[in-house]
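Model it.
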Amino acid sequence: MVDLDRINTFIHAFSEEENGAIEELYREAVRDGVPVIRPAAKSFLKVMLDMKKPMSALEIGAAVGYSALYTISHMPGGSHLSTIERDELMIKRAKENISHFGMADRITLYEGDALEVLKTLPDRSYDYIFVDAAKGQYINFLPDVKRLALPGALIITDNIFQDGTIFESRYEVERTDRTIHERIREYLVALKNDNELDTSIIPVGDGMTVSIYNGAVSS
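Modeled.
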């Protein structure tokens, strides 16, 4: 099996140590077992944000609000980020953190199931979309993610490798994890075979995909 921890430790060794109150929130989230983006993945996302300079971002999966705060801190002035979360405890903590860091005017938190919330958002609204919620739903998010993306939008999906199990045969995966295993593979196939998307799979963190939405292709 690929040693993802060794790869990420190597990558992280070349990353600058980040400090400040937001990073204290990161350490608290890790301590409390809250799922947050991995250190090596953070460095990658920062570069993507610096390159894209998005003005309107969407995040699917807010947790305690750390990734939303990290993302908006690397977006241009005057930009806005929308994020979605369904867990009531996470929503409460995310609201507190967003308010604490004075970002309530730049971050909108939508409460509810992402599959339902996504359908209420207007077409072609975002030039950056970060997908990091229920992994088994990625394939179901995709039609709305594409509908919401502006031409040229950057779409990044996290946790594609599922701690390395995605490389294994479905018969070598725990029975309880086989549905997610199948759906993640289905999602990867859909991304790579969609002629409206240019997609690359990046071995950083727990695996990410980076897609550029090229707009609806005329038949």
